[in-house]
Design the sequence.
């Protein structure tokens, strides 16, 4: 294909056909989670919080939110938990494998709404993947985002992802880090207990704050509840919703959530937008 | 555009179809014999002499030509050219089919991304619609804002009268086809007969729809469905659902699809061995909304039945100010469990 075409132009012509992409590297993050470093043959720039469709030819395709910095356009990291058929196939991929990539889709984190505010980030398990992308975006502009309170929980210390990076993040002046695991080991220096408990200890000025939550459905549910209890208003809480987006562009119908298609109206919603919709946590 | 009604007798009608067949692949109602030896009229490829106009809508929805059951999207990876759509003329679409295009246009043409297969299919499909003169027993188009005769959305519309057809163009290309046939202008009597038949058909639909006493207007239907979240109707009616997806597939406005890869050659190397296809999907299927790891927002059949109504009478009214139901009654005819959308709406509206 001609080099002059951008990914957006290529995908406008054939929106359901992925861009040929090489898996450059595979990083084991935990026993069930791997990060794939992807280099598409045409750069696929994205905004943090937007998602992509990653395909294995002949085997299937699924939505993931890149976990890397949006400042890097020519490659992206996708962090995948092995949880089903396709993710099992992905976990079998070696560096050099050919996959497909489409996107980016949807609306990401609205950084303009975070300007100058304290940002409470609440993550659970593999839900840290999109949040890492957000953190890396916030790190690009410390003056604009002077205070980031990061609360993260995993099941066990072994399940914590980006283990070598979290201590580096903690050194940043804008960052405050709170960690917990459901089940600690003797060498775990942080808290024990579910991640929602971390919110109780955070000191934050609610009048100038936003909260961002991403994790497994049960954690999102109780995480949102803990944020509301803390005093956040529904419109201050940003949630990354998980649905089975197939087309990614608001046509195929799979990811409908009330009056929205998660793929084009989300995947990031405020709790205010979706709180009255039945079954949002299922 | 100014509509000049023309008249065609049988010979002129066949000549017009032959002219169309010279430029388009012709599809329309044709008598076929099924495996049991019974003959019936169904939409298919047809020769000009074999088109057999039916007095009402066809079993097959018009969407099958614009959003096909399985659409070949071409080479697996991006770049390259998608398959070129075939120019086709579809004979016999009715007003309920044309009404469905407003819903399909919203889904496939609106938004940041346009669906190229639908867009191209729309462009190359010549629609020769017809008045519905003998509504089927399940028809209720007038209860959802429709009418048995088309007023827009066609290239040419035909109305059957004694001794022939009254023809009207709705587009420039339709007008060109009619002009090429040097047809006489329809007489005032012929137009009057057409209008009389139209009135009779509308009265017939209104009469049979009245039995269901459906709320008039999209907002009222939306309110009824919203108020019925906890209605016992869902669990009771879903007892009869066998999850076949017929209501979805036969519906002229159901647009859900799933992308899949099919192997086309084993030797073409990475990715090249596959092509990507767009396939009709059905929200009544258990796995429709299932996510990785097996979590399912709608594991129960009654939840999926309710979802179908949420989508048609709530989602679409919020987003487009119209219901995604044309009152064609196809889902009523197709359901092996005899679940009747009209009964459900009636129960919700009068709960």
Sequence:
């Amino acid at each position: 294909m001609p080099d002059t075409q951008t990914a957006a132009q290529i995908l406008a012509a054939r929106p359901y056909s992925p861009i040929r992409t090489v898996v450059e590297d595979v990083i084991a993050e935990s026993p069930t989670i791997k990060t794939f470093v992807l280099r598409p043959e045409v750069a696929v720039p994205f905004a943090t919080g937007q998602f992509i469709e990653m395909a294995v030819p002949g085997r299937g395709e699924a939505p993931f939110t890149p976990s890397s910095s949006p400042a890097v356009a020519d490659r992206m990291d996708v962090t995948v938990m092995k949880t089903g058929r396709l993710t099992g196939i992905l976990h079998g991929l070696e560096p050099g494998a050919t996959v497909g990539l489409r996107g980016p889709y949807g609306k990401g984190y609205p950084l303009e709404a975070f300007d100058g505010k304290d940002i409470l980030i609440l993550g659970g398990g593999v839900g840290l993947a999109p949040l890492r992308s957000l953190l890396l975006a916030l790190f690009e502009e410390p003056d604009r985002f002077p205070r980031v309170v990061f609360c993260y929980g995993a099941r066990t210390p072994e399940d914590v992802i980006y283990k070598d990076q979290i201590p580096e993040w903690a050194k940043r002046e804008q960052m405050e880090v709170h960690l917990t695991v459901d089940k600690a080991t003797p060498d775990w220096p942080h808290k024990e207990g579910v991640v929602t408990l971390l919110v109780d200890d955070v000191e934050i000025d609610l009048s100038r704050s936003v909260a961002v939550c991403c994790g497994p459905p049960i954690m999102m549910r109780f995480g949102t509840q803990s944020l509301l209890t803390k005093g956040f208003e529904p419109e201050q809480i940003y949630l990354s919703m998980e649905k089975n987006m197939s087309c990614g562009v608001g046509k195929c119908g799979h990811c409908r959530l009330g009056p929205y298609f998660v793929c084009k109206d989300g995947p990031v919603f405020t709790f205010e937008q979706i709180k009255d919709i039945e079954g949002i946590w299922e | 555009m100014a509509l000049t009604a023309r008249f065609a007798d049988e010979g002129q009608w066949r000549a017009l179809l032959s002219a169309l067949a010279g430029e388009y692949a012709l599809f329309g109602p044709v008598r076929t014999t099924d495996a049991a030896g019974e003959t019936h009229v169904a939409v298919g490829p047809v020769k000009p002499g074999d088109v057999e106009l039916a007095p009402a809508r066809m079993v097959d929805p018009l969407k099958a030509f614009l959003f096909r059951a399985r659409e070949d999207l071409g080479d697996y990876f991006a770049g390259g050219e998608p398959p070129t759509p075939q120019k086709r003329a579809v004979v016999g679409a009715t007003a309920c089919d044309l009404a469905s295009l407003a819903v399909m246009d919203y889904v496939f043409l609106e938004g940041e991304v346009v669906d190229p297969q639908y867009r191209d299919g729309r462009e190359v499909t010549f629609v020769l619609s017809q008045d519905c003169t003998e509504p089927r027993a399940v028809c209720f188009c007038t209860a959802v804002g429709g009418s048995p005769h088309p007023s827009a959305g066609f290239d040419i519309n035909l109305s059957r009268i004694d001794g022939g057809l009254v023809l009207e163009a709705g587009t420039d290309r339709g007008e060109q086809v009619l002009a090429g046939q040097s047809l006489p202008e329809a007489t005032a009597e012929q137009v009057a007969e057409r209008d009389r038949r139209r009135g009779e058909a509308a009265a017939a639909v209104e009469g049979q729809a009245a039995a269901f006493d459906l709320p008039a207007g999209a907002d009222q239907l939306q309110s009824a469905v919203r108020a019925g979240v906890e209605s016992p109707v869902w669990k009771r009616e879903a007892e009869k659902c066998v999850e076949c997806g017929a209501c979805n597939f036969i519906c002229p406005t159901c647009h859900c699809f799933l992308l899949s890869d099919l192997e086309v050659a084993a030797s073409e190397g990475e990715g090249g061995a596959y092509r990507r296809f767009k396939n009709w999907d059905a929200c009544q299927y258990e796995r429709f909304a299932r996510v990785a790891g097996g979590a399912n927002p709608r594991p129960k059949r009654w939840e999926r039945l309710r979802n179908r109504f949420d989508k048609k009478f709530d989602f679409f009214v919020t987003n487009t100010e119209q219901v995604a139901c044309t009152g064609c009654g196809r889902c009523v005819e197709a359901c092996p469990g005899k679940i009747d959308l009209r009964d459900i709406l009636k129960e919700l509206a009068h709960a």
About this structure: The mean pLDDT of chain A is 95. Chain A touches chain B through 46 residues (CB under 8 Å). The first strand of chain A starts at residue 19 and ends at 30. Residues 217-230 of chain A form the longest helix (14 residues).
